[in-house]
Design goal:
Elements (H helix, E strand, L loop, with lengths): L2 H15 L9 E3 L6 E3 H6 L15 H4 L10 E3 L17 H10 L8 E7 L4 E7 L10 H16 L4 E7 L7 H20 L4 E9 L1 H4 L8 E4 L10 H8 L10 H6 L5 E2 L5 H13 L1 H13 L1
Helix pairs in contact: 5-6
Length: 297
């Protein structure tokens, strides 16, 4: 047996021929300025472009740690619903689409994530839609989840904050998805009747049945920069009215100019803005006394 031929040479060949495995997706291109971004820096920047400040779509499980104190929160499982009530099928069975979306959602059961925890040392309930889950479409599971979040806020006397990101009602559930517009509207009313703040943060995109129901019923409406917000898409509107739409139509800044949004807030400042708003709405006397003390000084 030749030790060099049978042992050393194969080892050397393996070392020479082995390709260096580079991790995938180390870089990505900003869709607005087209600059290349190092993925690690981009994620650390809450998925905001470090060159032009473009806000990319942020999924709930990446958003929530930046909202709650010390990044700690409790997730609440959505109520169980019939997964495929109409046995719907187009190019693929609806239940197969659901399983595929759930496999990419890091354990999420549907397009809504409900969490609670301390925000500014105050118990807060947050419901966030996930556009990465079938376009954030609203079916019975999302409707039940929003109702649950509202009931949780009322039971715990906590403010309810909703992050919207949706293409509208889920067509695979037909009339059952449209019923959620009424159910979520009633849930929001219960929060308001309990004297609790209901704040909506409109993110890209917020359209369809979601914008026609709970997304536009907030006591205060915040929006991320350049988010698309509306009911029908601009192309449908332009074809219907047969007129050229103004620049920036349906963007956050356009809605702010026309009184549909109270403020456009950078993602990095959302947490502190929400804490200030909740304090103002829940402790107005404390805020007023502090203001008077500052003026008196």
């Amino acid at each position: 047996m030749n030790w060099l031929t049978n042992f050393v040479r194969p080892k050397l060949r393996a070392l020479v021929s082995r390709k260096k495995e580079a991790p995938e997706n180390l870089w990505l291109k900003c869709p607005k300025c087209e600059q290349m971004l190092f993925t690690r820096d981009w994620e650390a920047n809450q998925e905001v472009c470090t060159h032009c400040g473009h806000h990319m779509r942020l999924r709930p499980m990446k958003r929530l740690p930046h909202l709650f104190d010390d990044g700690k929160f409790e997730l609440h499982a959505l109520p169980r619903v019939i997964s495929d009530p109409l046995k719907f099928r187009d190019t693929k069975r609806y239940d197969a689409r659901l399983k595929e979306a759930q496999g990419k959602a890091h354990g999420g059961a549907d397009a809504l994530v409900v969490a609670s925890g301390l925000m500014g040392n105050r118990l807060t309930v947050v419901a966030a839609l996930d556009f990465g889950f079938m376009g954030g479409s609203m079916g019975t599971a999302v409707g039940e989840g929003l109702v649950m979040a509202a009931e949780l806020a009322v039971d715990r006397k906590a403010p309810l904050i909703v992050f919207s990101a949706s293409g509208g009602a889920r067509m695979q559930e037909g009339i059952l998805s449209l019923m959620q517009l009424t159910r979520t509207t009633i849930a929001v009313r219960r929060v308001k009747e309990a004297g609790l703040p209901y704040i909506v943060v409109l993110t890209d995109p917020t359209t369809g049945g979601v914008s026609a129901s709970f997304a536009m019923l907030g006591d205060v409406h915040l929006a991320e920069p350049e988010a698309i917000i509306g009911f029908a898409g601009p192309r449908v509107i332009q074809d219907t009215i047969r007129q050229e739409l103004p620049p920036g139509f349906q963007r956050s800044e356009y809605l702010l100019e026309h009184g549909m949004v109270d403020a456009v807030v950078h993602r990095h400042k959302l947490r502190e803005t929400l804490i200030r708003l909740v304090t103002l709405l829940m402790d107005p006397l404390v805020v007023e006394s502090r203001s008077l003390a500052v003026v008196g000084a």
